[in-house]
C-alpha cells in the first residue's frame, strides 16, 4: 500500500482529531463548511478524517495564528491546488497575475521572509 493511499484513508473520528489538533468540533465543522477539508462519512453520517485532513487542519491553525484571515487561507489553498503558472495552458490575465503577485507578497510579509519578486514589484503595491 502506497504512502499516499495510507494518508488519504479515513481513519480518525472527530474526537481524536480534536485531541490531535486542539481544535473544537465547531471549528472543524466550520472549516468543512468552507470546503477547506472534506472528511469522509460513514453509513451513520459520522465524519471520518484522514491524515491529510489532520495536516490541513494544523496548517489552517498555523495560518490563523500568523494573523491570516479565512479569505486569505482560502486563497492560499486555491493557489496550492492550482497547477503551476508555467504548466497552465492558458495565459493568465493581467488581473489574475496582479492578484497572484499581491497574495505572494502579503504571504512573504506575514512569514517575515522576502519574496524573490518583492523588490521589483513593491513600487506597484503600496
Automatic annotation (TrEMBL):
Output the SUPFAM superfamilies linked to this UniProt entry.
Putative DNA-binding domain
Reply yes or no: does the keyword DNA-binding apply: yes
Q: Which domain of life is it from?
A: Bacteria
Where does the record place the HTH merR-type domain?
11-79
**Family matches, as Gene3D superfamilies:** 1.10.1660.10
Q: GO molecular function terms here?
A: DNA binding; DNA-binding transcription factor activity
Q: Which UniProt keywords apply?
A: DNA-binding, Repressor, Transcription, Transcription regulation
Record Pfam families: MerR_1
Question: What is this protein's name?
Answer: MerR family transcriptional regulator
Organism, as annotated:
Paenisporosarcina antarctica
Amino acid at each position: 500500500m502506497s504512502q499516499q493511499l495510507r494518508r488519504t484513508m479515513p481513519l480518525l473520528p472527530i474526537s481524536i482529531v480534536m485531541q490531535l489538533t486542539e481544535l473544537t468540533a465547531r471549528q472543524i465543522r466550520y472549516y468543512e463548511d468552507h470546503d477547506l477539508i472534506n472528511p469522509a462519512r460513514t453509513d451513520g453520517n459520522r465524519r471520518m478524517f484522514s491524515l491529510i485532513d489532520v495536516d490541513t487542519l494544523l496548517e489552517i491553525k498555523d495560518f490563523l495564528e500568523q494573523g491570516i484571515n479565512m479569505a486569505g487561507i482560502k486563497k492560499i489553498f486555491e493557489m496550492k491546488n492550482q497547477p503551476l503558472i508555467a504548466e497552465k495552458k492558458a495565459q493568465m490575465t493581467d488581473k489574475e497575475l496582479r492578484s497572484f503577485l499581491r497574495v505572494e507578497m502579503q504571504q512573504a510579509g506575514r512569514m517575515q521572509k522576502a519574496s524573490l519578486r518583492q523588490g521589483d514589484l513593491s513600487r506597484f503595491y503600496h
